[in-house]
């Protein structure tokens, strides 16, 4: 049985992780931390865990937890993991970080976009980007996993096969994205209050969203050319979900079957990526509470553009589910272990 530690177990991502691990056939949470609920049982904080998870939340001591656990998930915001993860900790355990501290290979880019200092620059090269469908072989050998962001997971999975095959112009990519409110985290924020968020859709961080360099770095890696894109996120009045619509200029004339073949070549054997039927666009309701990413596309022959749409659950494939998928790879388990469930509907 894999012994698991969860640092930050009472945020939305941490709680989703504990939920998934509660039914994992080969893993057990033995340590869970919280700043707000130290000494309280997990089911006291989250009533939905009654009879399922009787953890007692403890004060965070990552050094002690690292010695106790085979893998430690850090389910905390950016700027935290780089202050906590050390060579000594990585010698004791494997780390899967939900934050952005080890996602970008250039620390200067990280510090520019995130506005905080990076405290473990010497560990960046040891980190592997945890997008399993693309970096699976590297993940298996890693001690430090940078769990991707939710927008970036949807965007990279949607576009990576296309830039890799050179069928879209890497300088002509625009991504519009919509997220549920849980993507902003569990902290108090006026903009997340019910009467502020309900019956409202708004764009935010226009031209400045921190997932932009993450998208560009990994699409550039696939393309072999520099990708500079426009990314605009929006918040919608729903609890969970990510939907992106990506517009790109095609470099040559392609039929629907040509593009379909490109996706099949890359994802034909990927269980968690589902390609929709012709004429069917992905919807957030069809992936809710699952680790699936649905992808569909449309060719606009009038403009010569390819329009790609992808949908996933920001708390599962965009966070906790992806982290469990990474854990499964690290320990040689079936990749679907603990994640083999149908989406819920309605919800």
The protein's oligomeric status is single chain
Structural class: alpha/beta
Given as residue ranges, the uncertain stretches (5+ residues, pLDDT < 50) are none
User: Any idea of the CATH topology of the largest domain?
Assistant: Dihydrodipicolinate Reductase, domain 2
Please write the CATH class name of the largest domain. Answer: Alpha Beta
Query: With helices defined by DSSP (H or I, 4 residues minimum), what is the helix count?
Result: 12
Inertia-based shape: globular
Which H/E pattern describes the elements?
EHEHHEHHEHEHEHEHEHEEHEEEH
Structure explained in plain terms:
The chain is 31% helix and 22% strand. By secondary structure, it is of the alpha/beta class. A seven-stranded mixed β-sheet has the order 8-9-7-10-13-12-11.
Question: What's this model, at a glance?
Answer:
The chain is of the alpha/beta class and 347 residues long.
Secondary structure elements and pairings:
Elements: E1 2-7, H1 12-21, E2 27-33, H2 42-45, H3 62-68, E3 71-74, H4 81-84, H5 87-92, E4 94-97, H6 107-114, E5 127-129, H7 132-140, E6 144-146, H8 150-165, E7 168-179, H9 194-197, E8 202-203, H10 212-223, E9 230-235, E10 242-250, H11 256-267, E11 273-275, E12 293-300, E13 305-312, H12 316-330
Parallel strand pairs: 1-2, 1-3, 3-4, 4-6, 5-6, 7-9, 11-12
Antiparallel strand pairs: 7-10, 8-9, 10-13, 12-13
Helix pairs in contact: 1-12, 7-12, 8-10
């Amino acid at each position: 049985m894999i012994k698991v530690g969860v640092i930050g177990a009472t945020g939305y991502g941490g709680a989703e992780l504990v939920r998934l691990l509660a039914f994992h056939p080969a893993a057990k949470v033995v340590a869970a931390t919280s700043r707000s609920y130290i000494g309280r049982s997990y089911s006291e904080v989250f009533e939905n865990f009654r009879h399922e998870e009787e953890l007692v939340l403890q004060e965070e001591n990552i050094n002690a937890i690292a010695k106790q656990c085979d893998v430690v998930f850090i389910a905390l915001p950016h700027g935290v993991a780089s202050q906590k993860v050390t060579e000594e900790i990585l010698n004791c355990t494997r780390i899967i970080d939900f934050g952005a501290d080890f996602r970008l290979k250039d620390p200067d880019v990280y510090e520019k976009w995130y506005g905080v200092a990076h405290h473990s620059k010497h560990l960046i090269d040891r980190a592997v980007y945890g997008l399993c469908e693309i970096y699976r072989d590297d993940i298996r050998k890693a001690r430090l996993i940078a769990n991707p962001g939710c927008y970036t997971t949807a965007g990279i999975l949607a576009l990576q096969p296309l830039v890799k095959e050179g069928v879209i112009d890497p300088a002509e990519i625009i991504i519009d994205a919509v997220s549920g409110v849980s993507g902003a985290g569990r902290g108090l924020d006026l903009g997340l209050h019910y009467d502020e968020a309900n019956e409202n859709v708004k764009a935010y961080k226009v031209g400045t969203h921190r997932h932009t360099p993450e998208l560009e770095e990994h699409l550039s890696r696939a393309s072999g050319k520099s990708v500079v894109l426009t990314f605009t996120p929006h918040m919608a009045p729903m609890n969970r979900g990510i939907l992106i619509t990506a517009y790109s200029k095609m470099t040559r004339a392609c039929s629907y079957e040509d593009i379909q073949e490109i996706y099949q070549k890359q994802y034909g054997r990927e269980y968690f990526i589902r390609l929709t039927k012709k004429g069917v666009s992905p919807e957030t309701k069809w992936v809710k509470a699952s680790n699936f990413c649905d992808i569909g596309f449309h060719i606009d022959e009038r403009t010569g553009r390819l329009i790609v749409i992808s949908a996933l659950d920001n708390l599962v494939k965009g966070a906790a589910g992806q982290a469990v998928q990474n854990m499964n790879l690290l320990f040689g388990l079936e990749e679907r272990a603990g994640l083999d469930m149908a989406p819920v509907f309605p919800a």
